Batch of 4 targets.
Target 1
Amino acid sequence: MSVPLMITTAFERSADAEKMATALLEKRLIACAQISGPVRSSYWWQGKVVSSEEYLLVMKSDESLYYELEQCVRELHPYETPEIIATVITHLSEEYRHWLEKELRR
């Protein structure tokens, strides 16, 4: 495994988050996904501050799969400009690391 990543994106509807998680799991671009929410998001959009409820999708993957994963998220995401944030996982248990490596496409 090169570098383990935690990738986050948000959706207006939980069904869209579930659809994305399933698609990425089936392609083995992620090893697991967690959906939480609703959460309250406030952000700038088209010159105004807006607030909305969203569902967060947090996924575990690997740096070697990131660009393909990002492309899939862009293609399937209903937002015009989806949040796609990848954070390097600096520490994780050896058992989890082995499981992650086994479940991801290489």
Note: The chain has three helices and four strands.
Target 2
Amino acid sequence: MDSKRFKELVAKGISEIPARFLEKLKNVAILVAEEPSAEQLENLGIKRESGDTLLGLYEGVSNLEGGHTHRGFPDRITIFRKPVLAEAAGEDDVPRVVAETVRHEIAHHFGMDEEDIERARK
């Protein structure tokens, strides 16, 4: 899947977030990158050679912690194209993986950790 189509799917995933949450994302940049940088992986203790990676990454101060106030920069969410494509069970599955990843990273912005997100999915 090319980058343009992938970005369209990310935009669609964002548009599916309820308006009451989108209003609170005004100072959050949502980006697409090919894959996580070595620095991003290192900061999270992920070794590329282990086969682990990231589908998306929230970087910032969660909304519960005051959000948007760190270092004068907006928070950011990055969705990583190559890992998402590798995770999907074929091209027809990419929209689902993208939408789940977008929701997951936005949940981090609202202060949810991995356990909170897993509980909310059930």
Note: The two ends are 30 Å apart (CA to CA).
Target 3
Amino acid sequence: MTEGETVKAGQKTWKNLGVRAISAILLAAVCITPFYFGGLFWVALVILFSGRMVWEWVRMVDPNATLWAYVIPIIALVLTLTYVHLGNTSAAIICLALMTILTWIERNSRGGGLWAALGLLYLAIPSMFIVWLRGSEVGFNTQGFKTLIFLIIIVIAADVGAYFGGSYFQGPKMFPKLSPKKTWSGFFSGVLAGALIGGLLATFLGVGFLAGFLIAIPIVVISVAGDFLESWAKRSKNVKDAGGIIPGHGGLLDRLDSLVAVILVMGIYIYLFPQYWPI
């Protein structure tokens, strides 16, 4: 590929860059105030976002969905996240387990109960972790804020790095049957961008550049795996986008699939091994 062809390919790929940037800024503006205050404000936002993602999931995997197919998992989210906010983890787990069974029963009459049950768990458990990790302390200098902002910024940096690196360098595809646009050049660009930003952010947080750099690498890999997981689900159901609420991105699930995977895996890690989490 000549330099001129590379530029043309990059221009074609970046044609919706402005729309994507504006959508990302508006999304950040919606999140920043609840994120700062934490507590009930943050819980309300997480319920709103996760409820929308559940709606998109049901719409994607259940073409004959009933009203209850949407209502049951959304009620599950509201009750479960409320219990997490109140500090009653046992009640939250029991509630989620019972509502997952109800979700499976409701869908199983039409076939595909496993899709419904796994979808609820995959979205509800990270939602529980993101409420728990943020906590109720107010301010930028709280433990919950610093932990989440570290994870979120690394995911964003990796996504931006992969977008520009993959668009410019092109090259071999990673898994074209799952995601035809993702290239190895984009993957490595994303890893490098996420690691560098992770190192810089960790330095700012007093942890040190090397620690942040090394921690960021598996976080980026998990974020890519989350993206591919959603792509696989969409391919399995012959769906292009989970929704259309965000211009340039599709649905919330399309935009937040990487973060969902990161919060799930890192939430479990931090819960089990808090002594090894330096942020």
Note: The radius of gyration is 19 Å.
Target 4
Amino acid sequence: MHSAIVKEALRNGVNVVTANKKMLAENFTELYNLQIKNNVALLYEGSAGGSIPIIRNLEEYYDNELLSSERTNGTCN
């Protein structure tokens, strides 16, 4: 259900921000391609180590390399 809402928004040219890690993990390739095709932003954030934001920090640290996927053990521990 959530992915349908996000996909529709991206198709309609709406930028999306989400923290739904399960939805991203299950639909990442399709959402990423919709983002590119419709020239919109799909922004997300995750946390690890007791709610310490991690994804944005990785992107800033590795600013010359695009982050196009992530892998976790399912619990982000």
Note: The first strand starts at residue 16 and ends at 18.
